Amino acid sequence: MSAAAPGADAPEPPGPYVHPEFDPWSPAFVADPYPAYAELRARGRALFFEGSGQWLIPHHSDVSALLRDRRLGRTYLHRFTHEEFGRPAPPQEQEPFHVLNDHGLLELEPPAHTRIRRLISTAFTPRRVEQLTPTVERLAGELVDELCEEGGGDLIASLAEPLPVAVIAEMLGVPREDRGLLRPWSADMVAMFELNRTEETARRAVQASVEFSAYLRELIAARRTSPGDDLISGLIAAYDAGDRLSEQEMISTCVLLLNAGHEATVNTTGNGWLSLFRHPEQLAALRADPALLPRAVEELLRYDTPLQLFERWVLDDIEIDGRTIPRGSEVALLFGSANRDPARFPDPDRLDLARADNPHISFGGGIHYCLGAPLARIELTASFGKLLERAPGLRMLSEPERKPGYVIRGLKELVVEV
Question: How far apart are CA 43 and CA 22, in angstroms?
Answer without folding.
Answer: 12
